């Protein structure tokens, strides 16, 4: 396409009014009881506020039921209408939900869809390939979680605790089936919870049922104590810690309660401290008047087991960060671990028993003259502080040197990256006393309680992130979002994709295994899963779909323009976008040839390799379009991505902004050996109303005869476009979003597409727009001009290379395009208005429809009702060419 032409296509999402595309949201509550639908106010025990929440929940479900009935009545009417007008196959094929599709355009559907990588993703009222789940906290939009992501989790007998980057949260198990608490942004659908006062980021949590407290370790080096009773009832002000003290200079990386009641903490540099139970018990028993003494009492009571290490003569003790601590209650031992080594301690004497590596190799001992007979008994703070600090400084220095020497030795033997895949990422003890560790490679290692390596297992290729044991089962959480369930012998009982991002923590309680995803969502899985109860619950939930489903209507305006290195006037942008923006909720703009030239392309490629993108000209376009759309007051730009001359950006209306987020960006070069961005694609992936939508702006190979190259460009883009999260420093615009696309899965947290499936295959809606460069075959310049002047487009469409290739199933497989009712978009001369502007120079390029907009929604059949099985149903309501800009480009 040339710089003087642009293409607009309006996709509308939704119904009740004439709104052809629908987005289906699922608000899944594990089970629904009659009391939840029609609560008995007389039985409420939580006060007027809980009554209001219940009434709000009931009102929502009644609204869903009415909407469901309206859809059913509308479907019946439209089926009768369709039966009496079934001669127009193209028109019927475009109808997704009947009502509102009367104004939609007939569509052409490409062959080759529905199979392989072009198969529509499987959706359902209840996910067909995993057990039903309890959503404690649905997946929040990433943009709402900046500075408050959930990072760890623990359970008590009656509560679920989670540590965030700024506080501690508590859910009472008795509230798990309560209506959503209408929380702050990101927690609108979250089960009611309480939150603590603001703290430093929480890194680890451990429960102490005996003392009825929960301990938290923080990034600022403090340990805080939270009383379980302080987290009730739900409606209350933020609760405060009962006790806190400065435990470490660096962050507290791990905590554990030993079988003797001591609190062990680990930090950076191999530092371990033990806080005796006597001091903790005394501090917790102090009266309110004496409370100011408690922190000082505990802070001075610590014991550093380093002293024992020096006397016993271990040379290669843990000098790396103490990432994990584990208590073997039956064996009266404590395990401490870094990424590549373990240490075994006696829980009673606090002596180091054994140090060994991840491959089970025991570290050597050497004889070291005893510096002094250091006591590890509880002593007064001043005397012990002086003794431990003076000795500890020299001992730590020596250990750091020995640790560095050991690292050099390991690298020399195993190679610079030899240990990466063997790095320990998680540790847990099973009910039979066996210890299990998980590695970056997905390897599971079984150890006995004495630190002897027993057996290895490998059930999944992704990195292990966490464990949880309950009864005779071991649950494993992976970086891919997958959860596997094993028996005590390591046999795989089942597995499923639990989350769309890594499972970073698991905990058992109230008959569930709770999983915390990296994106902050929390789900509960029945402890019997996988099992026969799953099918019963799945059937019950599927039958009550109308109680927790709503349909949202949304109109999307997409526009593509090859600007030919020019700059548009404000009036031209008003004519192109501003005149129609008032009726849509989302605007997607794709530009090509924003900047070109060998020097610029080389510089752009170099910037991509170091994670930089964008240009001043690209920013000018974003600013000008934003001004046209009244950005800030009416619309907000949620994402953009530039690759050389390609630029894509998305704006959403402010009134739906809270439902839009998780913006990821991608770029795929296709020019000059798939390395230069003069040809290629840029894309944005966005979550709207809980559904994944991808927008891809392309510029494919030019020239009449290059059909196969264009097909290959599409195939390369579709298969290799991998999205990664934008830079949070510019999250709203996503304009510094990604580095060069490297190997699949190496750059994006939570990449969990099905094995071998492109990421675009997993989207509920995919829209391709851009200068695809497909031409007209077997026709002359003058013939095209004659047909265009008479607006006879039917015969020209038969010569369209893209339609021919789509019909053959060679490109854009399964995608849809509205019937073309506008003149060819290629090629116009600059400053020549109207159809007289077609290229009349020496080359006389044959006019063609180079600029196109195609899409694929969730329909697996030509006519599908919008539902949880088919969550996005779309149609094109308008498709047109704007020629008014031809003489307004600078």
Automatic annotation (TrEMBL):
Pfam families hit by this protein: Beta-prop_IP5PC_F (PF23754), Exo_endo_phos2 (PF22669)
Family: Belongs to the inositol polyphosphate 5-phosphatase family.
Protein name, UniProt field: Inositol polyphosphate-related phosphatase domain-containing protein
Biased composition (Low complexity): 75-94
Coiled-coil region list: none
GO MF assignments: metal ion binding; phosphatase activity
CDD domains (UniProt xref): INPP5c
The entry's keywords: Hydrolase, Isopeptide bond, Magnesium, Metal-binding, Repeat, Ubl conjugation, WD repeat
Needed cofactors: Mg(2+)
Region named Disordered: 1-54, 73-108
Keyword Cell membrane: no
GO biological process terms held by the UniProt record: phosphatidylinositol dephosphorylation; pollen germination
InterPro entries per UniProt: Beta-prop_IP5PC_F (IPR056454), Endo/exonu/phosph_ase_sf (IPR036691), IP5 (IPR046985), IPPc (IPR000300), WD40/YVTN_repeat-like_dom_sf (IPR015943), WD40_repeat_dom_sf (IPR036322), WD40_rpt (IPR001680)
Domain of life: Eukaryota
Residue ranges of domain Inositol polyphosphate-related phosphatase in the record: 552-889
């Amino acid at each position: 396409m040339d710089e003087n032409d642009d293409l607009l296509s309006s996709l509308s999402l939704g119904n009740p009014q004439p709104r052809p595309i629908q987005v289906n949201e699922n608000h899944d509550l594990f089970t629904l009881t009659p009391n939840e639908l029609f609560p008995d106010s007389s039985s409420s025990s939580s006060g007027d506020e809980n009554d209001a929440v219940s009434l709000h929940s009931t009102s929502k479900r009644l609204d869903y039921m009415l909407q469901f009935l309206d859809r059913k009545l509308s479907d019946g009417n439209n089926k009768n209408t369709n039966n009496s007008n079934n001669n127009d196959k193209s028109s019927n094929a475009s109808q997704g939900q009947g009502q509102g599709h009367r104004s939609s355009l007939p569509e052409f559907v490409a062959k080759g869809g529905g199979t392989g990588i072009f198969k529509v993703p499987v959706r359902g009222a209840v996910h067909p390939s995993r057990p039903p789940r309890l959503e404690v906290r649905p997946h929040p939009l990433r943009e709402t979680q900046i500075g408050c992501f959930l990072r760890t989790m623990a359970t008590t007998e009656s509560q679920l605790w989670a540590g965030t980057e700024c506080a501690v949260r508590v859910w009472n198990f008795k509230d798990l089936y309560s209506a959503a608490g209408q929380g702050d942004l990101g927690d609108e659908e979250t089960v009611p919870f309480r939150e603590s006062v603001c703290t430093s980021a929480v890194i680890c949590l451990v429960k102490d049922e005996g003392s009825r407290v929960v301990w938290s370790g923080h990034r600022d080096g403090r340990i805080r104590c939270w009383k379980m009773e302080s987290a009730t009832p739900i409606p209350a002000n933020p609760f405060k810690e009962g006790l806190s003290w400065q435990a470490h200079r660096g962050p507290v990386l791990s905590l554990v309660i030993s079988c003797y009641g001591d609190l062990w903490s680990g930090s950076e540099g191999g530092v371990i401290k033990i806080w005796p139970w006597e001091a903790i018990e005394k501090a917790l028993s102090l009266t309110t008047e004496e409370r100011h003494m408690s922190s000082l009492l505990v802070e001075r009571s610590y014991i550093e087991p380093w002293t024992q290490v020096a006397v016993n003569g271990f040379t290669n003790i843990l000098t790396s960060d103490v990432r994990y601590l584990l208590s073997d209650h039956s064996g009266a031992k404590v395990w401490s671990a870094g990424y590549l080594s373990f240490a075994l301690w006696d829980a009673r004497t606090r002596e180091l028993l054994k140090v060994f590596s991840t491959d089970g190799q025991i570290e050597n001992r050497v004889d070291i003259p005893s510096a002094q007979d250091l006591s590890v008994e509880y002593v007064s703070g001043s005397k012990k502080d002086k003794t431990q600090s003076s000795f500890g400084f020299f001992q730590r220095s020596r250990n750091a040197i020995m640790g560095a020497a050991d690292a050099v030795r390991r690298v020399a033997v195993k190679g610079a990256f030899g240990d990466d895949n063997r790095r320990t990422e998680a540790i847990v003890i099973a009910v039979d006393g066996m210890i299990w560790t998980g590695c970056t490679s997905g390897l599971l290692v079984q150890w006995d309680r004495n630190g002897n390596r027993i057996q290895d297992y490998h059930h999944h290729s992704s990195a292990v992130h966490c464990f949880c044991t309950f009864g005779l089962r071991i649950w494993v959480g992976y970086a891919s979002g997958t959860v596997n369930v094993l028996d005590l012998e390591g046999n795989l009982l089942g597995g499923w994709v639990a989350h769309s991002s890594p499972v970073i923590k698991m905990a058992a309680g109230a008959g569930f295994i709770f999983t915390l995803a990296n994106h902050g969502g929390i789900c509960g899985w029945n402890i019997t899963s996988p099992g026969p109860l799953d099918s019963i619950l799945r059937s019950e939930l599927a039958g009550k779909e109308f109680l927790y489903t709503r349909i949202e209507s949304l109109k999307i305006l997409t526009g593509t323009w090859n600007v030919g290195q020019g700059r548009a006037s404000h009036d031209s942008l008003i004519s192109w976008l501003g005149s129609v923006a008032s009726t849509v909720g989302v605007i997607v703009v794709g530009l090509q040839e924003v900047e070109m030239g060998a020097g610029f392309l080389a510089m752009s490629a170099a910037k991509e390799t170091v994670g930089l993108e964008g240009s001043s000209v690209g920013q000018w376009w974003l600013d000008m379009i934003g001004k046209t759309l009244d950005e800030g007051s009416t619309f907000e730009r949620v994402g953009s991505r530039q690759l050389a001359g390609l630029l894509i950006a998305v704006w959403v209306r402010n009134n739906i902004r809270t439902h839009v987020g998780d913006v990821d960006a991608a770029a795929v070069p296709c020019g000059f050996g798939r390395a230069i961005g003069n040809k290629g694609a840029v894309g944005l992936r966005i979550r709207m109303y809980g559904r994944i939508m991808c927008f891809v702006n392309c510029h494919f190979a030019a020239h009449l005869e290059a059909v196969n190259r264009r097909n290959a460009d599409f195939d390369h883009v579709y298969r290799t476009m991998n999205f990664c999260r934008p830079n949070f420093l510019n999250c709203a615009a996503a304009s510094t979003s990604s580095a060069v696309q490297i190997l699949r899965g190496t750059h994006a947290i939570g990449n969990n597409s099905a094995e071998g499936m492109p990421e675009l295959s997993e989207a509920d809606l995919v829209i391709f727009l851009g200068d695809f460069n497909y031409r007209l075959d077997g026709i002359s310049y003058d013939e095209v001009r004659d047909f265009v002047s008479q607006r006879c487009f039917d015969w020209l469409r038969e010569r369209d290379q893209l339609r021919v290739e789509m019909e053959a199933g060679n490109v854009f497989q399964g995608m849809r395009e509205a019937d073309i009712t506008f003149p060819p978009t290629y090629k116009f001369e600059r400053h020549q208005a109207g159809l007289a502007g077609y290229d009349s120079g020496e080359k006389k390029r044959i006019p063609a429809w180079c600029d196109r907009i195609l899409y694929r929604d969730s329909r697996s059949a030509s006519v599908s009702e919008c539902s949880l099985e088919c969550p996005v149903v779309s149609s094109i309501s308008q498709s047109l060419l704007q020629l008014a800009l031809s003489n307004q480009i600078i």
